[in-house]
Records
---
Amino acid sequence: MPVPSAKDLLSIMPQLIVGGAGMLVLLMDAIWPKISKRLLAGLSILGLVAAGAYAWVTWPRGAVEPTLQNMVRGDAYTAFFTIVLAIGTGLSILLSVDYLEREGISHGEYYALLMFTTVGGIIMAASINLICIFIGLEILSIALYILAGYQTERVESDESAMKYFLLGSFASAFFLYGIALVYGATGSLNIEQIQDRLVGAAATGAGPGKNFLLLAGVAMLLVGFGFKVAVVPFHIWSPDVYEGAPTSVTAFMSVAAKAAGFAAFLRVIAGGFQDPGQTENLQVQISAVLASVAALTMLVGNVVAVVQPNIKRMLAYSSIAHAGYILTGIVAAIRPSGGLAMTNDAQAQAIGAVLFYTLVYTVSNLGAFGVVLALQKRGEEITNISDLAGAGARYPWLGALMTLFLLSLAGLPPTAGFFGKLFLLQALVSMNTPLIWLLVLFVLTSVVSFAYYLGVVKSMYMDRPEESDQAVLRTDWNLKLALALSAFGTIGLGIWAGWGFWVADHVADAFLAVAAH
Amino acid sequence: MTSASLLNLVLYLPALAALVLALLPKEQREWMKWGAFGASALTFILSLALLSEFNSNDNATVQALTEIPWIPQLGIQYKTGIDGISLVLVLLTTLLSAISILSSFDAIRERVKEYYIFLLLLETGMIGVFVSLDLILFYVFWEAMLIPMYFLIGIWGGPRKLYATFKFVLYTLVGSLLMLVAIIWIYMRSSQGGQPGTFDLVRLTDASGPLAMSAVMHPQERLWLFLAFASAFAIKVPMWPFHTWLPDAHVEAPTAGSVILAGVLLKMGLYGFLRYCIPLFPDVALKVAPWFLALAVIGIIYGALVAYVQQDVKRLVAYSSVSHLGFCVLGLFAFTREGVQGSVLQMINHGISTGALFLIVGMIYERRHTREISAFGGLWKVIPVFAVMFLITMLSSVGLPGLNGFVGEFLILLGTWGPPGGPNNQVAAALGATGVILGAVYMLWMFQRVMQGPLDRPENQRLLDLNVREIATLLPLVLLMFWIGAAPNATLRMFDQAIYRTVVLPIESARAQTAPPRTEIAPPPSGAPGAGLPPSLSQPALSSPAAPGNHP
């Protein structure tokens, strides 16, 4: 086995830093069981900041060669998702510290597991080999299975972990089977090589459109990804798991697992199965499937969220809906049409929109969960939307922040969420033959989403509960810091949306330059 | 200070004041009240300064322009500026905001701090809508304004406030999100020949420019986009049959909310038609105008008839708004110079008169905690000052000659009737005119039942007359009613060229392209763009625009 060179190691430096920090936390907790858990949390955050800063400082410009025997490409795309995941995990840790102490589950391995999940996510984003992506997926998933069942005292938490584990393993099997079939059809596991071979096959007239093995393989890959990012019809697990898992884990899961899932999803679909011959073929079929999945996801997520009394379930369905929005961007990124090649610009814009939306969703959603974590009713965490009643009048800043996060999720200007949706809509419109029905569905389901987001706002500001029956603020500076950072992101990415989109667009350009090489 | 920075100060001063209020302790209610009032009064004074900086001889040209790239990759700019139409609407907004803040001093007793914060944020949103010159920036303000209003109705509203506020928000959202799709579609189409697209309203509405909608789109496409924009604006106006949110929102809103809603928010729908729908798609507007005229006439008559049977004064005023706004739509879609002038003037008149009516209803409600017409009667004897104010306002709303309402309605009906042989809609004008009569019927009958007759209820005999603060809130509006009624030209002259360039000229070009030009009515507008006013149009009835020689 060849020894990895320095260049190889540098290209996976963020993974090494985060993984190393995770191990260190685990070891320190084992060696000094009495060690302050807050110290371990701080150490984890330090690791994440270091990884994020590394990705920022060494931001790759131009073409980047693959490393580690063509397994990994440390390009701008990887750097972007490294930073998104570092932000997501960092904020989740800040949100967790006080909550874990309150719930009596403050152990060192919690932070270690979060770190391992993040490593898995970064590996998924960085890999250009299907097996390597699978390994990342499993690292991420296994850590999440444990985290979902972290509150061993609560039977719901156990149930959540069990459900997640069973269905997750099932989805992993699908994914693995898909990899095998794709390998059988193309003879490669490297997505860039797969792309080359498909183009080659198209040139000799053996177009991939009729290759049943390949189609079945891609379909199974889609099932695997669909499960990870929770799109309809592979979403059934997510409300139950989100509801049962400890709230801090739910918050983390709803952003990190999704971001990582979409990172790999986009990389594989847009990088590996690009339309080779621009004729009747694979990509038309993939995009048709994804468009209908996106439509269903937006519809089911938004409509079902309206009737949820439980706030965690509501946010679960809301995050399903957001996966649907992001998916429309992926549809826009891959959809060819009528024998015309998509302009590179439009495609880059679509990918940029997906990246920007992922970042915006991460900060806004974590913020909303942060507010849920900050409140307590009769000594227990709040569960229902009605538990928030009166919180807006009682804690004006908290209410204002929650309103901000929810409006951003709903996509109201001038928050970041609006610009996220704007860019996605722009990408949808810029397709060669825009899917107008998808566009209209996007917009109408967004209107529906206002119903449940404003429902929470209504409860906070307009309902008046009994004085003794009100949720009280239980928070420490960690949580406040997390809320402040999320709020800064939510407003900042709105006001400086131009800058945010410039970065995302730049990443997309670099990504396409590789895909088109 | 340049006029551009003055405009931005007017725009953001209320929001800054809201931020300052947010940092003050909430126990200090007096600070909140006076701080909010001071900020909004200062905003009004600054907008008067803006007026004095404004060159109204050239009111069709955008002045006080700010242009900064915002999201350059996607052609989104931060672009604000005012022409005559924007300016008068900004003035109306700043005046009504200050007045509605002053009117809330006694009415709002709980959660005072948040109340004033939301009112100030709302003010910035409203001004922003009127000064934006970029489609996305416009959309940002248009939507951002929704949230403060949602809270104002939802927290400080009446018994059915939750239903009303939710309905208001959802109705508005459905329309405006369709508009968002249309805006993005325009962007896509404006990307021509490898050039990136744009959201710049000035470039997009240049009828002879390369980006004119008629140059970059199919007729069918234009029709759909027009309808998407129109859905947002028709709901906001609201035109019949999209009006059902309005009575609920009005009745449940606190007084200041109703004043702002009637005075400014409804004008945004009309402003949208005037600034976006018609200049972007003049040919479609021309084609669908009969439908809009029909809806406007239905709105006028329906609103008046429903107002007639209301038991609740506030609901009556709300339905009278539906009727009055029908007039504005009628004049606008008549596309004659007088009609559009009357429409814009009537927007202002309606803001003043109906704003004052809602203030009056609020004052009586604060005293009696009911708005049922049958609970009153003979109030004139107890509260004479109130009665005089009410009488003038009511007559202004009815359209008594000498007061402001008359001028607007007259111009609208005149413009809708049309010049002999020219574009005319005599049936619509005749039917619309019945609305004037019906307006007199329901208003006078209501006034009679509330203010005159026997004073037979003991609760009504101890009512207090207006205090100084209440007189101060009503007096500016009453003076304006007289002033606009006596010297309408001063107001009309602020936007006469602007409406010509924004509405009449594009429509005439479109008309000339679809039908052979009738040279005896209007000269062919082919040479007209930017060339000033055609002589045959420079002497309309009641308006005398600045001499054509002033703007080559």
---
Amino acid sequence: MTTQETRTSIVWDYAPAPESRDHVRLRDSYGLFVDGEFRDPLDGTRVPTLNPATEEPVAEVAFAGPADLRRAVEAARRAQPAWAALSGLERGKYLFRIARLIQERARELAIVESMDGGKPVRESRDVDVPLAAAHFFYYAGWADKLAYGVGGRQVEPLGVAAQIVPWNFPLLMAAWKLAPALACGNTSVLKPAETTPLTALLLAEVIQEAELPPGVVSIVPGDGAAGAALVREPDIDKVAFTGSTGVGKDIQAALAGRGVSLTLELGGKSANIVFEDAALDQAVEGIVNGIFFNQGHVCCAGSRLLIQESVADTVIGKLWERMGRLRVGDPLDKNTDVGAINSREQLDRIRSLVSAGEEEGAVRRSIACELPERGWWFAPTVFTEVAPAHRIAVEEIFGPVVSVLTFRTQAEAIEKANNSTYGLAAGIWTDKGAKAFEVASQLQAGVVWQNTYNHFDPTAAFGGYKESGFGREGGPAGLRPYLRVR
Amino acid sequence: MSRLAVPKTYKLFVGGAFVRSESGRYDRHDERNVPRASRKDVRDAVAAARKAAGPWAGRTAYNRGQILYRAAEALESRAADFAVERGEIESAIDVLVHYAGWTDKLAAVLGGVNPVAAPFLSFSLPEPTGVVGVVSPDEPELLGLVAELAPALAAGNTVVAVLSEAAPLGGLDLGEVLGVSDLPGGVVNLLSGRRAELVAALAAHPGVNAVVDASGDRALTATIDELAAESVTRVRHAAPTPSYAAAVADALSRLEAVTELKTAWHPIGA
């Protein structure tokens, strides 16, 4: 590290405000949710799932082996014709039930999400869980209106979907995957991420409570090998994957020649562009939200900050001051802004890329904050003097690290923003309407936010250009990956 | 007195120009010499298509529609020059007319305003994916090509097409029609040669955003998918299009396969 500044701004002391864990009903051990029941694994294992803030086990979870995956796919196949034959209204009513039950168990789900994944409870409570419920609610209403969503054409479900979700928004990504698949009459085998299986298993309880027919959804935790095995199962019709571009490419190749429908939501190195005519204080809040939300474990994180030269020093100064007020620590504390890094493996990856940034000559500043002794943590970090070819300007760090580049003209901003193999998202900070529309239209990104960032809604399609993947989730476009259109 | 005929020299259509293969290779079809394009020709064609992509996408939908309609007019007037059945040419013309009308309807059908639960005007609009690689079938050689070209162009993409290996003349003749239509150079690029060789170079090219494989050649399916995975290229496999009706029945699926959906969020109020 070339610079380590002490915090000079006013320090606001907060008393600890831990979220109560009284009403969390976690079992000691979870089986695989297959064909409507929690079951012992046939050939899987049982592993502890760790709290990244303490490195202590939260619960023990069954990981699926090949025979378990096969059993889940067979159950999904058996259940699919009857599920598809239900009237759209009835399918929708099951999804409405799930939405309601998620809302009823919202606080519990939020706490478990933060315990298992390390994200601040403020985020899991205000973003992850409400949005998960909203996605089920939204797609529930589509189930009896599918033809309207695809230009009035005749539709039928694809069949059995294998759905693989990442560890950064475990419950929310499960909702993004399941809700449209089920609304369209497909059945699903969902694999949660290795490090964050718990809220998916609580969702399995919700699904049981909603009396969804057995086999319509199976939830099979496991590691990357389980995911690789699942997409190679012969009797699947659809794969939906959210995760890294590397794994996405492997899946696309694994499906070669099989005729299995595929959608991929992959990585990003999204540009957050601050123009000189922006409301700078508002922009700084947006920069912070863009990169430090969920510790930067966000595929669309605004990890490349492009600032117009005339205001670069001002914005960087304000950003650094604002970063100094970020509260890093206990995810279950309601005042925490930045929680724990999801896993040791991810922490190592962040450290390695940050070292590369320093070695390549960028200037690193990390805030001085006390980090807990146990657990995995990384202090919010900003890199300046970044060249476009530096690894930290090109590769996805997936951590609380922002790389600052500058530009002089609008054309240069667009050119730099588009100079990436990725194309997931972008931010624009300006108060000039016509300019915002023009820049938005020229950015190669699936989502463009003006004067906001990391804003999601079930009615608005989300997904990438270029190597950030293909297919959309959310909105009517989110139905199409799960329908065969005649 | 018998007059000595002037035979046509068939050439590739790349960047708006008629060129021989840089390799100098050729094959024989119907007693004609036909260029056998190389991997380098594929790269040149992709470069031409990339260069043309921004300006073509940047034209108004109305303008693109008129240009596609103009291509239909040009094909109608040159129908007698083609060595394919009249019915197939007429179907190809009608497919161009159908997709000419899609250019300024697509956004209304695939996109819309998103009623988000926050004070933003959020909307999703389709945009062209960029450069589309088209793999043409042997039969019908002209309609099978046009049925893939037309939706890709209507959606605002530029195209590099690998023509039928067995019957490339219809596609090469089409190039001569398009060359004198209003299509800007590089928007359509047509390559004749060995399908397996050209398709491999096309599917693996990082400058190709989507591949539409309408060859019906099962032997190529897995290869295309594997090469496409190297840069997350979008792939659509489809059977050769036998008729006008088939070309338009699934129009929205054809258009969707070569578009991206962009969601924009603009603030309402301060």
